[in-house]
């Protein structure tokens, strides 16, 4: 039986270091700091494929560690990513070449998916996503439009969607996957912002968003392992993680939503219906460094261990996310009582997107930082986004509430000079395929009728322009 807290990568490293070896190998620092900022211990952990890691095949400690993570998440394999979810998404697109020439892309896919289109040479078919103009954000996948697209095209290699979105909108993945699978189309879900969803117990608000879906019905793992115990006696709970709702590849940014180091993530191969382990491995190898950062690998492994011990594998009452959920709810409740402040009804309890008619999102964010040293996640003309991370506590909550109240009162008499309703970002017709257009960009043609660059300000990272897309003025 797999023990979810085991750490083959860390154990191999400990064993290596215990020998106090003479190091005649990279990295050049040999475990000795060249500054007094980073602690020496960090240099010791920053290793390369030394003895113990050089084992081929299934006994390799990295493979072993990934396998344990896969068991935890009840998937076929979990690939550790040291180039962020970005690399996982691009690799997913490359692997789709196996199935056809066209790929359905939700309009709000992240820039890295478009990088994947350029690398793979696939032809994008854009899936419209509802837009909430009063909030200036994309909403859920429109199921009717997805069905329409699928029945209008053939040779579709796959479908890529984002759920949750940056602001915490979760789509009906179960329905999306049903629609795709009816036509034998694999579904890739960019769950960069939703690694934590797998561990959460959702409330009434969520159950209204997903009628008919119960935790029981979507929960596959019935072998009595620790995952089950979280939900025992609570059959009203829902699952919104794509991992259990029919997606075939799920790419998560653990640094965004689970607490590992920046640039680390996981690509879950949920099943082998459309892709094999080898399909994904060779696609990742094509675009990854041959020297993965061991700090990032360790960070992923230790995060999984932490989740195994603290969050996922104990009765729900001891789930580490429970106290965070309670305090997040109480913050939102207090915010809702503030006059002239509106809180977006996000499906993700750890995302708070808000706006006030008294002040633009950008000015609001500026005030919060300048006067109160509160740095938020991002802002636009309309609103601002806050992430509740694992360090959040009552003291921070009170500081935020106080600051928001003061800013709103101070700004009530200042007229806003931004319009409130924003128009939906459009995708123009394509004059060339993205890969060809990107390559033509090297030739600096001034008479080009279409874009050769991706324009996708991050965050939120969805594209304004895509290579091959007409300039606005041309048809
Ligand atoms: C929706 C979405 N997908 C993918 C990514 C890429 O994730 P990473 O930073 O881990 O490469 C981001 C990053 O901002 C994102 O917002």
Short description:
With 475 residues, this protein is α/β, with parallel strands linked by helices.
Please state the second-level CATH architecture of the largest domain: 3-Layer(aba) Sandwich
Largest sheet, strands/sense/barrel: 7 strands, mixed
Classify the beta-strand content into a percent band: 5-15%
Which consecutive residue ranges, at least 5 long each, have pLDDT under 50?
203-236
Instruction: Please list the strands of the largest sheet in the order they lie side by side.
Output: 1-9-8-7-6-2-3
Shape: globular
Radius of gyration: 23 Å
Instruction: Tell me the series of helices and strands, N- to C-terminal.
Output: HHHEHEHEEEHEHEHHHEHEHHHEEHEEHH
Number of strands: 13
Helix proportion of residues, in percent?
Answer: 25-40%
CATH homology group of the largest domain: Type I PLP-dependent aspartate aminotransferase-like (Major domain)
Name the ligand types: pyridoxal-5'-phosphate
Q: How far is the first residue's CA from the last residue's CA?
A: 61 Å
Write down the CATH topology of the largest domain: Aspartate Aminotransferase, domain 2
What is the averaged pLDDT score? 88
What is the number of independent domains?
A: 3
Count up the helices: 17
The CATH class assignment of the largest domain is: Alpha Beta
């Amino acid at each position: 039986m797999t023990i979810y807290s085991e750490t083959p990568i860390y154990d191999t490293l400990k064993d290596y270091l215990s020998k106090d070896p003479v190091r005649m190998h990279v990295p050049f620092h040999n475990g000795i700091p060249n500054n007094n900022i980073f602690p020496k211990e960090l240099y010791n952990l920053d290793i390369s494929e030394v003895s113990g890691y050089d084992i081929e095949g299934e006994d390799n400690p990295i493979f072993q560690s990934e396998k344990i993570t896969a068991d935890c998440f009840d998937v076929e394999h979990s690939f550790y990513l040291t180039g962020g979810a970005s690399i996982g998404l691009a690799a997913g697109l490359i692997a789709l070449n196996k199935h056809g020439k066209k790929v359905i892309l939700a309009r709000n896919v992240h820039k890295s998916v478009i990088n994947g289109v350029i690398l793979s040479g696939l032809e994008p078919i854009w899936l419209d996503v509802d837009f909430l103009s009063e909030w200036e954000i994309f909403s859920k996948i429109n199921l009717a439009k997805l069905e329409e697209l699928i029945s209008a095209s053939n040779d579709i290699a796959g479908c890529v969607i984002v759920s949750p979105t940056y602001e915490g909108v979760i789509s009906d993945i179960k329905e999306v996957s049903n629609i795709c699978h009816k036509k034998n189309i694999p579904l890739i879900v960019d769950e960069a912002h939703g690694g934590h969803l797998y561990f959460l117990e959702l409330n009434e608000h969520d159950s209204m968003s997903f009628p008919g879906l119960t935790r029981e019905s979507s929960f596959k793992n019935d072998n009595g392992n620790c995952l089950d115990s979280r939900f025992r006696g609570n059959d009203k709970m829902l699952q919104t993680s794509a991992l259990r709702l029919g997606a075939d590849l799920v790419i998560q940014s653990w640094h965004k939503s689970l607490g590992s180091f920046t640039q680390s993530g996981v690509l879950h191969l949920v099943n082998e219906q459309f892709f094999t382990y080898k399909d994904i491995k060779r696609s990742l190898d094509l675009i990854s460094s041959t020297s993965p950062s061991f700090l990032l690998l360790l960070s992923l492994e230790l995060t999984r261990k932490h989740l195994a011990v603290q969050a996922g594998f104990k009765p729900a009452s001891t789930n580490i996310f429970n106290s965070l959920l309670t305090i997040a709810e109480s913050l939102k409740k207090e915010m809702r009582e503030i006059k002239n402040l509106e809180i977006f009804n996000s499906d993700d309890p750890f995302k708070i997107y808000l706006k006030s008619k008294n002040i633009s999102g950008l000015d609001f964010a500026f005030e919060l930082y300048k006067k109160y040293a509160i740095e938020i996640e991002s802002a636009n003309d309309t609103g601002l986004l806050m992430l509740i991370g694992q360090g959040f506590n009552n003291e921070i909550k009170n500081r935020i509430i106080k600051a928001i109240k003061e800013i709103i009162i101070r700004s009530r008499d200042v007229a806003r000079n931004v319009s409130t309703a924003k128009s939906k970002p459009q995708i123009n017709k394509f004059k060339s395929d993205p890969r060809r257009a990107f390559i033509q960009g090297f030739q600096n043609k001034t008479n080009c009728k279409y874009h050769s660059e991706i324009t996708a300000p991050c965050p939120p990272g969805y594209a304004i322009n895509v290579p091959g897309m007409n300039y606005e003025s041309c048809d």
